[in-house]
Structures are given as C-alpha cells and as structure tokens.
Amino acid sequence: QVQVVDSGGGLVQPGASLRLSCKVSGFTARRYDLAWYRGTPAQGRDWVGGIQFPVGNTIYLDSVKGRFSISGDPDNYTGYLQMNDLKLEDAGVYYCKAAGRYWGQGTQVTVSS
Length: 113
What we know:
The protein is an all-beta fold. It has strands at about 5, 10, 20-25, 30-40, 45-55, 55-60, 70-75, 80-85, 90-100, 100-105, 105-110. Strands 2, 4, 5, 6, 9, 10 and 11 form a 7-stranded mixed β-sheet that branches.
C-alpha cells in the first residue's frame, strides 16, 4: 500500500523560508514524478510545481519561480519543496502527490505578520 507523508509546515512571517518534505513508502517505481499543490480538498488544490525522477527535471507555477525550489532523493522516494521569501498569498495547506495519483495528507503553511 502506497503512503505519502507531508511534513514541514508552520507559521512564519512574510519573507521567511520553509522546507517541506514528502516521503513516499510502499512504492517501487524508478521513474515517477512528485508534484506539490496547495489549497484544500473542499476548495480545490492548485498546482505549485513538480519534479520528474530519476532525471530531476522541475517545473513551477509562474508566481513561485525564483522563490520555490523542488528537489529530492529518488532512491529514497523523498521530495522537498524549499520555499523562500514567502508571501501572504503563499499560505495554505500544501500537498505532495506522487506518481500522479497518491496524495499526502497535507501540511499547513501560515504566513502572517
């Protein structure tokens, strides 16, 4: 059974940084993607960016380019979302999605002065 666990959220001030983690277990594919979304299941989740393993190609939403960076360790099925210069509008629940189908439980990011 595949399980995705998101972690690393918190309360920060505008301009601060956070690093989110995504750990996938019960998964053995060598080629797969990890994508990050933000929002809620009830209100909808917006795509933020993603990475394709094992190559490591990344792609980002325009509004986060230059501030967010996605990386990971494909052999350990772990992904990271480094978020710098956080803005009020970046707040939300962040979710990792593995292989286009497996969702994490989400981790809350609050940006407040």
